[in-house]
Write a structure and sequence with these properties.
Layout lengths: L19 E4 L14 E4 L1 H9 L3 E6 L2 E5 L5 E5 L2 E4 L9 H9 L17
């Protein structure tokens, strides 16, 4: 029984019909291949989760709690994504550098409406 219509990665809305089915509790650690242990992840996010340190757990049918390698926490359900990360969670410099590095050359970064955290 499918409980999610889209990829369950935070902020992703790719249709579930084109997604991989991922074991929320890893199969190699005893997670069963059953509807209550499978969630749709698009191929991009399935690889990201498997290789980049993102983790998640199913909280209830269609609801998932995600943890990022940088300490972010996201709740994903059928209505969308809620960022539960504490504003006091520091963002490591390595993550800030990667985000800034993704800015296309010759284009200024978008304005930051928030004051610096110091």
């Amino acid at each position: 029984m499918q409980t999610s219509n889209t990829c369950v990665f935070p902020y992703c809305n790719r249709p579930a019909r084109g997604c991989d089915l991922d074991h929320t509790h890893p199969h190699d650690r005893g997670g069963p291949t059953s509807s209550d242990n499978l969630a749709p992840l698009c191929r991009k996010h399935h690889r990201l989760k498997g290789n980049r340190g993102w983790r998640y757990r199913r909280r209830s049918p269609g609801t998932y709690l995600w943890a990022t390698p940088a300490g972010g926490i996201y709740l994903r359900d059928g209505t969308g994504t809620i960022d539960l990360t504490s504003p006091d969670t520091p963002v490591p410099a390595s993550v800030r550098v990667r985000v800034n590095a993704e800015q296309p050359p010759g284009k200024p970064p978008p304005p930051d409406d928030q004051p610096p955290p110091f």
